[in-house]
Amino acid sequence: MMRRHSWPSGHWGWLIPVTHKHGIRSGRMVYVGGQVDKDIKGLVLHHDDLKTQTRVVVNHIRTVLADLDIDLDDIVKLVAFYVNDGRVDEDAFLTDLRSQLGEGPAPALTTVPIPYLAYPGMLVEIETIAMRGEDQSRPRRTVSAPPGHWRLAGPFSQGVACGNMIFVSGQVARDPSGKVRHPGDLARQTTDVLEQVGRILSEHGATLDDVVKINSYYVADAESSGAAWRRSIDACRAFFRAPGPVVTGVPLRWLPDGLVIKTDVIAMMGEDGRALARRTVPGDGQVSSLLPPPFSRALQCGEMIYVSGQISADASGIVLDPSGLVPQTHTVMGTIRTLLAGFGLSMDEVIKVNTYYKTGGTAEDLNANLRIRSACFTEPGPATTGISLPALTDPGVAITVEVTAMPR
Predict the structure, then answer these.
(1) The model scores a pTM over 0.85
(2) So where are the chain's domains?
């Protein structure tokens, strides 16, 4: 399988040396790590200017994609982490972002409003998934717009099917007019959101049984984050059967209009419409209230391997080294290494890393865990996104890491 990495000449850098690259192309999958408005020395530019930072970030994405011989029209999914406490007009942000992407097909999109990013003055970080065949052909692509579904600003697509992959945008509990359903009720909104996901998947001939990866962003403070996540995951369980998808939960301080959860998914289905075989790590029976059955800690489907957000915890779910960012990072990366080994893979098969870590939003906290994570990979390493947050799924959890891997 073809594998290429990208760090374009003159592209922005980190404050410390890393093995990570800005982009990676593996087979027909392309991942661009979270792009931000920084210079080659790792210093933030255009402080507190969302519109300018958005333009710069899209240009960075374009540059990395071009270095991998593809373009913006090949994008199938974006996740935009941006600073918003309710004072930013998200529809205006999405309209501006969509205009920067050109007139090509609209990708799926999830927006994640957060109180701060890793560096003061930084307002937006956008990660990208794109697809192009190894022979440079474009896989067949369709978008979904279920009748009566609420409108996603931009406009962006509610769902995109490309090859054997289906990407569903972040779903929220809104009715067709945009009115919020069940304001403030996490369990009922979780149910509503998954029903919406099911309708979008059905547009592509798929079902919830085809989902391989779930990311849920839910509203909770530091004290309630664990209990809130358990309420949501309990409501979610009823929709899946073993071996279920991997799941990562990320607590947020705020969503608009009484919304308390936003969920996006990746599903996989054969291009002939048949279900694809999947498997979990043999003998991995560890469960906890944060990731109960039927969900999987790691899942292989076709050539894709997904590892759910891992935390530093023992077999009973007790957090190890509470609030210790450095020791927890070592533990989490060791767990990921063990899970990948269960599929006969090493850390060097990882193509994308997503890290959520508890901090007040300083570069020092990022570097403390980035240095450890980066050292786990051989140069050239995977693409990466790192997001700082005030709380995670348990009060003692300091870091959560999820990865995507593909065999060479």
Answers:
(1) yes
(2) 3-405
